[in-house]
Amino acid sequence: MRRVYLDNSATTPVDPRVVEAMLPYLTEKFGNASSVHFYGQEARVALDRARREVATLINARPNELVFLSGGTEANNLAIRGIVESNVEHGRHIITSNIEHSAVRGVCDALEKRGWEVTRLPVYEEGVVRLEDVRAALRPDTALITLMLANNEIGTIQPVAEIGALVRQERERGRKYLWLHTDAVQAAGRMPVDVETLGCDLLSLSAHKLHAPKGAGALYVRRSVRLTPQSLGGHQERERRAGTESVPLLVAFGKAAALAREEMTDRIEHLARLRDQFEIGVEARVADIVFNGDRERRLPHLSNISFRFIEGEGLLINLDMQGVAVSTGSACSSGSLEPSPVIRAIGRDDELARGSIRFSLGKDTTAEDIAYVLEVLPRAVENLRRLSPLYQKSLAERACEIKTA
Description:
Elements: E1 4-5, H1 16-22, H2 38-57, E2 65-68, H3 71-85, E3 92-96, H4 101-112, E4 116-120, H5 130-136, E5 141-145, H6 159-171, E6 178-182, H7 194-197, E7 201-205, E8 216-220, H8 235-238, H9 246-284, E9 288-290, E10 301-306, H10 311-320, E11 323-324, H11 340-344, H12 349-353, E12 355-359, H13 366-385, H14 388-403
Helix pairs in contact: 1-9, 2-9, 3-4, 9-13, 10-13
């Protein structure tokens, strides 16, 4: 049976070149990067090189990067770290209602501790509007945290425009207003430049870039002061205690370098196959709705709602035929609730429960897409045959045609 992996938004397969780069640091180059002897300094050189490579991907300085375990820890350190360091300047946070759970959960927890949180709408296109951000600003606003690109529908948020707004506010004397963006889904799939974005904090994760799970980074602009969330060591300029995982971070650095070198080709490849896929689905399957802005989005991601079926059932049916997809964020897998992202763009429960995320990768081929377009219509039709709502819809349409 052919196997096709279309869940690259959840995680990506590790590039063989990345494996090759990290292997020596799992064997003979095993030193602790904090040690002063040869083995330690060998590890330190590799860590510094990885930091430069990841920093270059986002046009940052190496000393502005904090290495940690992944995107979730990066979001926690960014949000908790900044608001706890500036609590005397304000307890108001602005975010959106389609953030990843790693941001949403932190904001919920801070709200219980006394911070006020404004959650902005995104409307049908799945994009936050600048005028809503401006209207939500208050004298006690300490942080704006908005993802750069959504992990379920791929829509790209106007972070650069919001960054310009923050700069304007600072010019008017608002020194303690900060901007954080979760770029976990965006990095490597679109150009990411911290200077263009105007952000103060930016989160990254290695396993979205064809590196192993367990490594991530937080960009922290030099003027930003954070309260550390893990204590007990002087690593990472005392912003994140704990011995660095040199093999994983070497892999992260290599993956970042490859993403930067190959980005143009990857984007063109992904967008071409995604468009081919969507045209094929639209021609073969009726009663579907594409979710999110079809233009302002990441090149690899397509989110489609299928009427009259449950997304979970379609996921399982496709998996039995070798096609891996998802019904939303991997961090929310197993939830019985409709996707909050799909609900936030105005879809009803039926469409939210029937949504599927197809996320392509750099190794996806035209043959993979052709196979999915072959099995997907049959899977949808088989499930709809079992749906009383679908049968009722067919009967009503037949009646309308007869009457006409």
